[in-house]
Input
Amino acid sequence: MLLMKDIINDQNKLIRTISKEVSLPLSKEDHDLLMEMHEFLVASQDEELSEKYNLRPAVGIAAIQLGIPKRMCAIHVLDYDENGEPTKSTDYALVNPKIVSYTQKQSYLKTGEACLSVDEDVKGYVPRHAKVTIEGYDALTDQNVSIVARGFLAICLQHELDHFDGVLYYDHINKDYPLVPIENAMVIE
Output
């Protein structure tokens, strides 16, 4: 199982590497890595497992965060009911995902973004597209997918795809006015 020690931080120059496309069909090595990345996310959001293995909770991880410059990422986003109980999960293990369309309308997380590769808490609003359509191969379902994502999921996907180009979330924050609300943007709670 992947652990926090396997994740490189933003002090490591590798995190800024441009990731390369991955050949399909997936090699066993790439497939296994993607499954491990997804398993890490699931474990990181499980209270018992995250405590046992000292994992920071995460909804996404890109291969470059493990020092592997390949265009692969995993997503595990939970939806909750009014009692805070998980009702469903949205899961992907994506290979070569690309944004094929997006809305001009922007959105941002009210609490700001965080990243497994960023140890310090960088305050500020990160402008993202409110809605994106992403195409790629999903190793969990073993098929090409077209994902239309809005809100939190759209933000998560854009955050992970940025990693492929060596971009970290705080690169998008307005350096002079990090906490000034983004005009006409959708605010995600």
Strands lie at 60-62, 72-80, 86-102, 106-109, 128-129, 131-138, 143-150, 186-188. The CA atoms of residues 15 and 106 lie 26 Å apart. The chain has three helices and eight strands. The chain has a mean pLDDT of 96.
